Predict the structure.
Amino acid sequence: MQIENIENQDLVNRLHKFGQSHVLQFWNELESVQKNKLIKQLESFDFELIEKLTGLAAIQSPWEKLAQNAEVPPAITLDQQTAGEAPYQRARATGTAALAAGKVGMILVAGGQGTRLGFDHPKGMFPIGPVSERSLYQMHFEQVLGRSRQFGVQIPLYVMTSPPTHDETTQFLTDHQFFGMDPADVKIFCQGVMPAVDKEGKLLLETKSRVFVSPDGHGGTLEALARSGCLEDANTRGIEHLFYGQVDNPLIQTCDPALVGYHLNSDSEMTSQVVRKTDWSQKVGNVVSINGKVQIIEYSDLPEKYAKQTTADGALKLWAGSIAVHLFKLEFLNHSLGQAGSLPFHLANKKVPYLDASGKQVKPDTPNAIKFERFIFDLLPLAKNAIVCEVKAEDGFCAVKNAPPAKTETPQHVKKAISDLHTRWLLAIGAKVAPKVMIEINPMFAADVESLENKIPAGTEISETTYFQ
Ligand code: UTP
């Protein structure tokens, strides 16, 4: 086909060289604005990288070999029982001092498209407060604010969006005045995207003037933090550690002082929170230790026979499930950024609608495309002295993933989990809560059990659904 009026001949040659000329098949039908947009998009692609990654699809991953050598990582338990013990108290004191000295900031990643939930807006806008109906964003922002007040500092919050979620998120947060946070302490930054390819390695057209792209995975955080100037902002503020959490988990123990303390006392470059898996097939990343290095094997990559291994007492051997809560030493992030390829791309087979050669949209029923994503947890094996801290799932992990009638991780499950957690906090300080009553505690009222103790006298009776704020 003759390509009319195209200035960037070098791009046309590159497309030809990499077998991707079909993306210009509707060129002659496009308006000039559309042409410019398409050219700009194509100029942003790294064709060498796309070709190299596509080639990896045929290569067998070494999971079998890694799984053979996978051992349980050494883990510290954070729960009500250990909370009474001296090592925990020491860690909490260390963490408290670091937080009060303004050395800890937070990254909240919210660049995913939330396809399973089927909500028409960025997932962070989803109302999840069991009594208040606060959005996921409001819950996270107030958690940061609660901690800031608890430690008498301003904890900066870096929110990662992606091109599909950026504008609406920025508008929403601005409209709600950052839920009380100082706007100077909130930085919204946008992660990158990657194109997908079909089984022949060809880019897919989403429209006649646009190649399909999707967010490059939460591993895109590192590059995006740097590109946006957020890493520099954190360095300039004297931040030394960044707490990392995902927007869909409202139970995150935001900047938990005990976690910060254990991380500091171990001189860990990256600390990960885990939960004990309830079932071998639970869909969480498996945190393991291989040749002394902590790392995560995704549930989909761990061969069944290794996932099912048990210890002498019948418990799961590889029990540590990742909940995507991490704490990074900032120096480590600065350093990792300079190491090319420190985060590899993972390949996933997905269903991606596309235009066929006649310009008709095809909605595939089975996976037709390979998407490329980076995972933030791939930094773990690169980190010195990485440690793992176990929390009870009911205390720190319940993510909103699915729409009803799914059996797990629906908004209904998550609302109940929040209410159950806050009810347990009340019981722990000696209050009495009537059965079936829904409870929600705003972190500005109390950020954890310890701070609740000063607010509500033991013996207080709560007989109706209550939102403490
Ligand atoms: P998930 O992988 O569960 O994706 O992301 P999701 O977008 O929430 O939901 P589905 O899979 O489309 O249904 C876990 C966390 O990582 C963030 C998400 O926003 C969520 O907080 N994430 C995921 C990103 O920030 N960027 C990405 O590219 C992918």
